[in-house]
Amino acid sequence: MPPASSSVTQRIEGHILTPKGFVLGSLEHWQGRIRGIEGMAVTLQAVRDEADAIVLPGFIDLHVHGGGGHDVMDGGDAAVHIARTHARHGTTAMLATTLTAPLLDLRRTMAALGQRARARAHQAARILGVHLEGPFINPDKLGAQPDFAIPASLHDILMLHELAPIRVNVLAAGFVDTPESAATLNDRMRARRDQLEATLPIQRVVRPADIAALAVHLMANTAVTGATFEIDGGQQLVER
Fold first, then answer.
1. pLDDT tens string for the chain (240 positions)?
2. Distance of alpha carbon 96 from alpha carbon 117, whole angstroms
3. Strand partners for 91
4. In sequence order, which residues have a C-beta less than 8 Å from that of residue 80 and are 6 or more positions away?
5. Could you give the angle at the alpha carbon of 99 between the alpha carbons of 96 and 100, nearest 5°?
6. Is the pTM here over 0.70, yes or no?
7. How far apart are CA 119 and CA 239, in angstroms?
8. Tally of CB atoms within 10 A around 223
9. Which residue, of 114, 135, 168, is where some domain finishes?
10. To which H or E segment does residue 16 belong?
11. Counting CB atoms within 10 angstroms of each CB, which of 51, 67, 197, 235 has the fewest?
12. Do 164 and 179 fall into the same domain?
């Protein structure tokens, strides 16, 4: 008997993006894993000019609330429709993202997401787990979140995690000194920096490197999950 298709090494040809740039050649894969890439290095301009297929890694989206007319909080099969919509646009894996909501609503949503995370739907992005955006956030800094924030408890977190895997920590940054902040504040930027340097316990403004340092730590420390870290230089202490 001929071998089953899943046991046969398959080949994709075209312009393949690698960590070192594009190559024109072939990619061999077997049972969902890349076995090798062969080809000749080519320039980005050649990729744009020639008609060969462009082979790219699938995108991983860590913050997906919805798509295709469906919302993660709808529960039921909504996550399947969302995952298929994103797969059509190049996303092959994603974290389904909730809104701050009453625990009863979150339980219903998480139960549906748990089923989808355990079994990938046909022609859909893989749901790796849940980005739990609330309800365990600062009620005074909800932003666009609905007003259903509650204090975190181990019981509630474990209860939700048992329904569907929680895979993300939230970095809740305050004011960060970036070019985007400067563009938004314009001539008020200097005054804002001076105010924060004079009032914050750290006596300086938060910089992008501060956010990045914690993100790197959390990526290395796999024991931390489902938590919210406020990086505001102690601004919340001053406001209280």
1. 344 455 688 999 999 999 999 999 999 999 878 999 999 999 999 999 999 999 999 999 989 999 999 999 999 999 999 999 999 999 999 999 999 999 999 999 999 999 999 999 999 999 999 998 889 887 877 888 899 998 878 889 889 999 999 887 677 778 899 888 888 888 899 999 999 999 999 999 999 999 888 888 877 787 877 677 888 898 878 765
2. 9
3. 59
4. 116, 121, 124
5. 140
6. no
7. 46
8. 4
9. 168
10. strand 10-18
11. 51
12. no
Token reading at 189: 């930027």
The sign of the torsion formed by the CA atoms of 22, 23, 29, 34 equals negative
Question: Domain boundary at 151, 168, 185, which?
Answer: 168
50 and 70, same domain (yes or no): no
Token look-up 């740039």 returns 21
**How many angstroms from the chain centroid is the CA of residue 188?**
32
Sole residue written with tokens 């046909």:
122
Contact criterion met (CB below 8 Å) for 126 and 91: no
